[in-house]
């Protein structure tokens, strides 16, 4: 799902909201999550998961083009850990699906 699909879904499920209001809501939520992570914080959405940042230590890497060794500086990366309810929901959906189920059918089962 992409952001525009999420905005449309929220607007359709809440007919009292204008599409622009739903877009502003989604944008505000995502901006607050990003801002909290940028400040080194953590965002926990019960039943969904936890967004946090993790440090990747400096290391020696390899340039794939010519194979030379390069230094990769320390960096902070976003990390997401799914909550127990989300994991249970995903695993129960996977258990009830056959091996030939497409991604779209899996998403429909999760809804």
UniProtKB/TrEMBL annotation:
Extent of Polar residues compositional bias: 90-101
Signal peptide: none
UniProt xrefs under InterPro entries: Hist_DNA-bd (IPR000119), IHF-like_DNA-bd_dom_sf (IPR010992), IHF_beta (IPR005685)
UniProt key word Lipid metabolism: no
Annotated Gene3D superfamilies: IHF-like DNA-binding proteins
Residue numbers spanned by region Disordered: 90-111
Keyword terms, alphabetized: DNA recombination, DNA-binding, Transcription, Transcription regulation, Translation regulation
UniProt family annotation: Belongs to the bacterial histone-like protein family.
Subunit structure: Heterodimer of an alpha and a beta chain.
Biological role stated in the UniProt entry: This protein is one of the two subunits of integration host factor, a specific DNA-binding protein that functions in genetic recombination as well as in transcriptional and translational control.
PANTHER family found in the cross-reference section: DNA-BINDING PROTEIN HU, INTEGRATION HOST FACTOR SUBUNIT BETA
Name by which UniProt lists this protein: Integration host factor subunit beta
Organism: Rhizobium anhuiense
High-level lineage: Bacteria, Pseudomonadati, Pseudomonadota, Alphaproteobacteria, Hyphomicrobiales
């Amino acid at each position: 799902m992409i952001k525009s699909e999420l905005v449309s879904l929220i607007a359709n499920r809440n007919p009292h909201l204008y599409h622009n209001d739903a877009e502003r809501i989604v944008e505000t939520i995502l901006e607050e999550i990003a801002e909290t992570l940028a400040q080194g914080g953590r965002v926990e959405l019960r039943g969904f998961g936890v967004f946090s940042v993790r440090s990747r230590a400096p290391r020696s890497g390899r340039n794939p083009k010519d194979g030379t060794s390069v230094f990769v500086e320390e960096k902070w990366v976003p990390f997401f850990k799914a909550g127990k309810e989300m994991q249970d929901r995903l695993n129960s959906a996977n258990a009830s699906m056959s091996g030939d189920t497409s991604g779209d059918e899996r998403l429909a089962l999760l809804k």
